User: What shape does this take?
Amino acid sequence: MSSSTVRVTSSPSIKNAPLVGLAEGNGAFNNAHLAAAVLVVPYLLKAFLPLVNRGGFKTYLFLLVVSGVPTTVAYWTLISMYGPRRNDKVRLPGKDIEEYVTIKDVELKKFYNGKNKIPMQVFHDAYFEGKIDFNGDVLDILEQRHDWARMTFTPELFKYVFTVLIPEVVSHSQDQDLEQVRGHYDRGDDFYEWFLGPRMIYTSGIITDNTVEQSLEQLQDNKLQIVCEKLDLKPGDRLLDIGCGWGTLVTYAAKNYDCDATGCTLSVNQAAFGTERIKKNGVSADKARIICSDYRDLPAGKGAYNKIVSLEMAEHVGIRRYSQFLSQVYDLLEDDGLFVFQVAGIRPSWQFEDLIWGLFMNKYVFPGADASCSLGWVIGKLEGAGFEIKSVDVLGVHYSATIFHWYKNWLSNRTAIVAKYGERWFRIWAFFLAYSTITSRQGGASVFQITMHKNLNAFHRVEGVPKHAGCHMKSEREPS
Assistant: This one.
């Protein structure tokens, strides 16, 4: 396998992909083709079926309604199976599936052997149940996934989309948020500490030097400082952290910037952990606090805070409630305040692999987190809520570095994890962390850190110039 145009990296700051890991997937979906199929199929049915070929336009509309979903499902299935890869610059080795995984289930073995690749959804569900094993390190084998797995839409995926995902996107109630967040984050602090480490931060860290491997703690400390500097925190500032997790940023900000910090979370465990963390760091309860509350129920009026931060919480808000959430943040923020917003999302020019990974994440890891959208969509929502964007940093590769550390931590604690939570949970998280290391590195998913303020005439933009880090580059060249 060789390529004259694709190169590999060797930065110690991340898990570098092997050449085969840089292979492009299938991104052949076309909205125009789908629309044409949906419109033409009922016409053909009307033309050739004896029972309806004498009907008029109303008959056509009836057939359009009846055949629309089956036609859509058929198109998605076929194009995911037979659509071409984005490009063939990286040639795949073409090894037998047995080189990569061991299929122990007799029925699965009948269908997937030799050059017969297994659909990724079928594979990961079977792996979680112990029916398939990786022949080596999970991450190393997943790097070569295009040689042994197919990124195709399966009946199980369609079932999940129609019976779970779409209903949850449409409803996305407050009770649903409470049930899903507490079911996820109140599983046990030890479960998360086994991969998050002592900082207990479940969001992307930031690389500040790509010539060395920075520790997980350094990546997270970098992020804490950068966020606080982007907020331009000063003594006496009133900071709100929406979706504060285990309270690390709240504690850090109050301790190091002498601001008044409030964090809110729906998780009972996180609120208790964060409150104890504040106490252990010598920060008084009247200076920092964690409230176990939905963001919609915060006991605060308009302009109650002059600095607001929300790191990777908005995905759980949901598409339906997104604008409402941002409007509430706008009201809570003082007119001359700053808002730092970090949110995960997917690329608009997606490949089928991205969608299959996203459905896995929604089902097994972050249920209800349906608002992981493209950067353009997020910016449109923010500007629609009345914010003006000051800066955007795309942190996908930083997330890859962070998750790679989480992955190594998780594997190192296997014995304790399996003893308390079982082999299945260990496998789900090993797969999640390994695959997320890859997808955030290759751009399938990313995370966006956005700094903004209200778009008001009276906002003094010039005062933010010193914090416009992207504009302050040291010139090493002579001016002409």
